[in-house]
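Comment thread on ticket #2218

A.B. wrote:
> Attaching the input chain for the structure job we discussed in standup.
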Amino acid sequence: MSSALTRAVMQKPEPERLEHALYLLDQITGHVPQMVVWLSRNWRLTATEIRVFGVLNAVAPLGLTRTAILSAAWDDPDSVEIKGVDVIICKLRAKIPLPIKTIWGQGWRLTTRFKLPEEAS
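C.D. wrote:
> Ran it. Output below, let me know if you need it in another format.
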């Protein structure tokens, strides 16, 4: 979590911190908090992996370029090497049960959009 987000969460009283952190994650990733928690617990995704998965999932089955993923998933894309996207895609492929297809010379795509299992929502 960035230092600005950490400060925003830590300014809240202790009982409200988790709820506020989940709210902020929802704003960043476009996912409902239940989705973020589910992805973290069940697939053991990190915050960055959740953001990258989220942008791929949002446009599935269409694809995104490295640059588009970098711009959408990082607060400061200039602070991350473009190869950082490749690393996260590799980690996601090892962790999630959905295929991430390579679009040669362009980027990646999920073949289908993931929806939270009914029992988890």
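A.B. wrote:
> Thanks. Noting for the ticket: The CA atoms of residues 5 and 24 lie 8 Å apart.
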